[in-house]
C-alpha cells in the first residue's frame, strides 16, 4: 500500500480504469454475477443488436430491469475518493466500463464511459435523443424507430472518441490503477498493456500476474486504506 501511495504522489499522469467491481459496493449487481433473473438468460444474447432488432420484448424487459435496479443506487466512498483525487490533481483521467454513471454522480469530471451509459436513451433508427420515461413506457420514436439505452451492445463498436482519449491517456500514464474489472472484455482488456507506467490491479476475486502491484480487496475499502494516509 505504501508503494502505491508513493507512486500516486510522484506520478505526473495517473489513469484510473474501473469495471463492475467498482459498483458492487453501491449495490449494483455485477452483469456476470450468478444472481438476478437474467442469469436464466445469457446477457450476451440479450444485450445485442440482434435482440434489439428481432426480440425487442426481451431486450426491453432486460434493460427496464437494469434501469429500475439503479433507481436508488448512489456512489460509495470509493467513487468520492477518486473524484477527490482528480480534484487534487492526483488523478488525470478516469475511464470506466460501467454504464451506471456513478463516477460522474460522485463529482468526477470528463469520465470516459467506454461501454456507454444506461442513464440516457436514443432512437436506434434516427439517433434522436429521447426521454427515459418514453423508453420505460415502451413508446417508439416519432420516426417509428425503437428506443434504446445509450449502452454499447454486443456487436457494436466502442465510442470512438472516448476510446481514443483513454488510449492517449494510457500511453502518457506514469501510473495506471485498474479497479474491479476482470479484464475479460475486449478491447478494454488491452488498455493496461498500452502503458509504460507502473500498473496496479485492485480486485476482490481475480488476479492478473502482469501488474506491478496486486491488491486483493473491495474497491471502496481498498481506496479508503490508500487514501487514509495519503
Ligand atoms: Zn427516430
Q: What labels describe this entry?
A:
230 residues, alpha/beta, Rossmann fold, SIR2/SIRT2 'Small Domain', six-stranded parallel sheet, three-stranded antiparallel sheet, 35% helix, 18% strand, elongated, binds zinc ion, metal ion binding, zinc
Describe this structure in words.
- The chain is of the alpha/beta class and 230 residues long.
- It folds into two domains: 1-28 and 74-115 and 158-230, TPP-binding domain (Rossmann fold, 3-Layer(aba) Sandwich); 34-69 and 120-151, SIR2/SIRT2 'Small Domain'.
- Helix content is 35%, strand content 18%.
- The strands form two sheets. A six-stranded parallel beta sheet has the order 3-2-1-7-8-9, with helices on both faces. A three-stranded antiparallel beta sheet has the order 5-4-6.
- Helix 6 packs across helix 10.
- The N and C termini lie close together (10 Å).
- 35% of the residues are buried.
- It binds zinc ion.
Can you give me a brief rundown of this structure?
With 230 residues, the chain is of the alpha/beta class. Helix content is 35%, strand content 18%.
Tell me the layout of helices and strands.
Layout: H1 2-10, E1 14-18, H2 20-23, H3 43-46, H4 49-54, H5 56-69, H6 77-87, E2 93-96, H7 102-105, E3 112-113, E4 116-123, E5 129-130, H8 132-136, E6 147-151, H9 160-172, E7 175-179, E8 198-203, E9 213-216, H10 219-228
Parallel strand pairs: 1-2, 1-7, 2-3, 7-8, 8-9
Antiparallel strand pairs: 4-5, 4-6
The structure holds zinc ion.
Mean pLDDT: 93
How far apart the termini lie comes to 10 Å
Shape: elongated
The CATH topology label of the largest domain is: Rossmann fold
CATH structural class of the largest domain: Alpha Beta
What fraction of the residues are assigned to beta strands by DSSP?
Answer: 15-25%
- Profile the largest sheet: 6 strands, parallel
